[in-house]
Amino acid sequence: MLSALSVLGWNYFRGRQLGNRLQILVILLPEVIYLGLALGGIHLSLGLFLSFCLIAVGVYILLGNNPVMPPAAAKPEPKPSQPKADLQQLQGIFGVETFYATSSQPFQGGFIFKGNLRSEADVAYRELSQNLTRKFGDRYELFLVCGQERKPVVIILPPQPVPITPLWQKLLALVLVVTGIATSAVLASQFLQLDLSNHLGEVLPFALGVVVFLGLREYAQRYVARQAGLTLTMPFLLPSLQLGAFGMFSRVLSPFPDRRLLFDFATAPALVGVGLSTFLFITGLVLTPGIDRGIEVPSQIFQTSVLVGTIGKLLLGKSLATTFITLHPLVIFGWLGMVITSLNLLPAGQLEGGRIIQAMYGRQVAGWATLLTLIFLGLGSIINPLALYWGGIIFLLLRDQERPMHNELSELDNDRDALGLFLLFWMVVTLLPMNTNMANYLGIGS
Q: Do 269 and 352 touch, CB atoms closer than 8 A?
């Protein structure tokens, strides 16, 4: 019920900004049906609810391409507010050694210039931006992007004001943090086999630890954003009864300068998550032998991940060849951190992995990666329902790519490419479960 209310509110505000009234009605219809049936005692399965949402999104897009409104209600195409002299001066920033403009057309209060890129993207963008600033100051900003015909184009627009965070978003962020602490406490009580109402003091440190872990990841990301002058929304925590929380996400309200900064923005929290969670996991394994009081779990937990099982076998050896094993609490905490970080490294939308793919390979590859990831999660839900929940969140909230960057044509350097491939490989070996033959060969599980 809480999830449906959250999605209902999100889609209302999003639809109010992006669509006409009929589109808003379509995008809200699945949540209204879900809530109405729930109040009547009928609970739809999550799969059926997500199917309704998928159909609604398809109709929403169809209505956007073919708006249903009388001609009188349709808004006229806005005319460029710039005098003709602006266009002539804008054409003067181009040159045969940077970008040779062959045509121009009005676009959202600015202009699109088509032509030929005559130099490296970094050099062309730098010189064009300097020429634009000398002529117009801060009246315009320049974007060097790949156009619809897969050719470089230059877009010059007036700067867009950064929206102010409304009060409801701040309150929602606070509610989600409290909810995340609660779900983490419930998860901790299950691991510790304690009654939550009677042992809140023993459970609460674990729950707060999950939120602190997510907070450190968020701090790393915001540090990169602050250094680059980016503006972000409030961080929204995504509670989960299976993991305590799926993570935190923030919308970027200002355009990225280039793909390098997009990559740094995405990898900062990933590196913190990988380093901290792996350190805690290994430390817990080292402290496990001879522990008097720990957390008893099925040893098959080490079969859920190739990386987790391999590290566990190296440090615990034959002690994994049992039905149950008593572990230090840091092992469970580190393992949860590894899973949360890996889920956020999936190559989809505005997840860290999706941003990494977009920075490394561009928008087209990132779009295909998002689609394949959602299909993979849909198939994975047959084995683990967690994949369905996470896939639904990505589809509803995080599937979109980042807005156009000032310079989208410059490639990453080799060091960033290598780091991106390492993080994606780490994600795969963390989420990929062991097959039975491998587990038997390593002696994991009875």
A: yes
